[in-house]
Amino acid sequence: MSIPANFRILPLRDADIEPVCALAREIWLQHYPGIITVAQIEYMLAQRYSPDAIRMQLQAGEAWWDKLEVDGELCGFASYEHGVEAHTMKLDKLYVHQLFRGKGYGAALMEHVAKAAERQDMDTLYLQVNKYNHGSVAAYLRTGFRVAKTVKVDIGNGFFMDDYVMEKNVRREAKMRERCT
Ligand SMILES: CC(C)(COP(=O)(O)OP(=O)(O)OC[C@H]1O[C@@H](n2cnc3c(N)ncnc32)[C@H](O)[C@@H]1OP(=O)(O)O)[C@@H](O)C(=O)NCCC(=O)NCCS
User: Which atom of ligand 1 is least distant from the CA of 130?
Assistant: First the structure.
């Protein structure tokens, strides 16, 4: 896919936190009804997208957040953190606004995160995605992830995440890229 040149991926600054929370809310309310209930969406938004929670993560250096800008407009974001196992990185969040999907931006964010993982000497980049989030599962398969296992995670208040864990070997990918250049 040829990706438009008018985009930038930049680290999240304090001033970006509230706009990212607003963007997350818009995307979640557009995308997740039909996959999870609106009650679960609200619960997960409150857990994951409070400005204070993101600020604390950034200040503690527990996670990296990057924003996607197209023509200077905030259109998406990704966050990632060290995984549970040694030499693994978890892609924790990946979101592109619905008007900007299917143009290569999601793949650009994934590549950006994969390169960050390689730079930190990781072997594996993994993520969790709802099993019924079919479009996003397809996008991950197209970008080199494979389903490693399924998990059902109790997130409290009677809600569960019914997910695939998907992963890819970023070290092998980097070696293949080297051979091709
Ligand atoms: C998942 C997501 C980030 C992908 O971003 P995107 O910008 O649309 O993806 P791209 O345009 O870079 O596409 C990457 C590849 O996946 C494919 N793809 C993307 N969306 C797809 C879909 N809905 N169905 C099938 N394939 C899809 C593209 O065709 C492309 O493959 P190709 O290069 O071989 O043609 C975006 O769809 C999104 O934000 N979804 C809603 C939120 C979400 O579910 N996030 C993931 C949470 S775990």
Answer: 48
